[in-house]
Amino acid sequence: GGISPLVGNLVNLEGIKVYGNRLNGSIPNDIGNLVKLQYVDLSGNKFSGEFPPEIANLRALKMLRLSANPISGVIPDAIGNLTELESIELDDTNISGSCEIPSFIFNMTTLRYFQASQNQ
Asked: Residues 102-111: pLDDT tens digits?
């Protein structure tokens, strides 16, 4: 199983931590409705599909962990607008793009930790 699109109804949710549960499918676009979300840890599952651009709507987000999932695509530049984000972990995914660290990272003054090893 995966995460139901109904997760978008949990508008007061501040954290999702479901790492290592073999969840699959795509990360629902409705996750972008959770504007109070501060912590997202979906690592160690089997989520696939494109990196969800709706994550850029999560203005309160402090930690994003999507490591060890076969998600693909590129990291959207809009992630650079998340002014509270302190930690991004995207290692061991199928995220592609240039072999360089995305330029928006260098403008994220709250960022303390960035990991994106073992990607395409």
From this structure: 788 888 999 9
Per-residue pLDDT of 17-45, as tens digits, reads 999 999 999 999 999 999 999 999 999 99
Going by C-alpha positions, the residue among 1, 17, 22, 120 that lies closest to residue 72 is: 120
Instruction: Write down the pTM of the prediction.
Output: 0.90
Long-range CB contacts for residues 33-38, cutoff 8 Å, separation at least 24 = 33/8, 33/9, 33/57, 34/7, 34/8, 34/10, 34/58, 35/11, 35/59, 35/60, 36/11, 36/12, 36/60, 37/13, 37/61, 38/14, 38/62, 38/63, 38/84
